C-alpha cells in the first residue's frame, strides 16, 4: 500500500473511532445484565488493570478489512478493551452485540440486514478515502 493511501486510511480510522466513542460515551456491554458479573470478575482477576477499561471502536458487523464498512459508524460500537477481547473470543455472542446495537439505535433492522447480506464486492482507492474524509468534515 502506498504511503498516501495508508495515511488517509489511518486518518479515517481515527476519525471513525472518535465519532463512535463520542456517540456511545461508554462501553455498551460492560453493564449488560447477562455479562456484567463475568466482565467484572475478569476485570478483578486482571488486578483491576485500568488499561482494560480503555474504550475502543469494535467493528461488529464486518471486520476492519471490509473497507466498504470500515469507516461506517453503524459498523462501530464502543467497547472496553476487556469486553472487546471477550467479543472477539466469542465469549459474548454476536446476537447479544447485535441486540445492543439495535437497542442503542446504532443501526436500524433494515440497515443491518442490508449490510449483513452485502457480499462486500468492493474495491477501494485513494478517491474513496478522500471522499470519506471530506464528508466527515462537512458534517
Quick structural summary:
This protein is mainly α and 139 residues long. The protein has helices at 3-24, 36-45, 67-70, 81-88, 94-103, 109-116, 126-138, and strands at 55-59, 76-80. It is 54% helix and 7% strand.
Task: Describe it.
This protein is mainly alpha-helical. The protein has seven helices and two strands; from the N terminus they run ααβαβαααα. It has one domain (3-138). It is 54% helix and 7% strand. α1 packs parallel to α7 (126-138). The protein is globular and about 45 Å long. The protein starts with a helix and ends with a helix. The mean pLDDT is 89.
- Terminal CA distance: 28 Å
Shape: globular
Radius of gyration: 16 Å
Which ranges are low-confidence, i.e. pLDDT below 50, for 5 or more consecutive residues?
Answer: none
> What's the count of strands?
2
In DSSP terms, counting alpha (H) and pi (I) runs of 4 or more, how many helices? Answer: 7
Short descriptors:
139 residues; mainly alpha; two-stranded antiparallel ribbon; 7 helices; 2 strands; 54% helix; globular
Topology, please?
Blueprint: H1 3-24, H2 36-45, E1 55-59, H3 67-70, E2 76-80, H4 81-88, H5 94-103, H6 109-116, H7 126-138
Antiparallel strand pairs: 1-2
Amino acid at each position: 500500500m502506498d504511503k498516501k493511501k495508508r495515511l488517509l486510511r489511518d486518518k479515517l480510522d481515527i476519525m471513525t473511532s472518535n465519532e463512535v466513542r463520542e456517540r456511545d460515551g461508554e462501553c455498551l456491554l460492560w453493564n449488560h445484565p447477562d455479562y456484567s458479573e463475568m466482565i467484572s470478575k475478569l476485570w478483578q482477576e486482571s488486578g483491576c488493570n485500568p488499561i482494560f477499561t480503555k474504550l475502543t471502536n469494535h467493528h461488529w458487523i464486518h471486520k476492519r478489512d471490509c473497507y466498504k464498512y470500515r469507516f461506517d459508524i453503524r459498523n462501530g460500537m464502543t467497547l472496553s478493551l476487556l469486553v472487546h477481547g471477550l467479543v472477539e473470543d466469542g465469549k459474548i455472542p454476536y446476537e447479544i452485540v447485535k441486540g445492543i446495537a439495535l437497542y442503542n439505535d446504532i443501526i436500524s433492522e433494515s440497515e443491518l440486514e442490508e449490510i449483513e447480506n452485502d457480499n462486500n464486492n468492493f474495491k477501494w482507492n485513494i478517491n474513496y478515502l478522500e471522499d470519506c474524509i471530506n464528508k466527515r468534515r462537512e458534517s
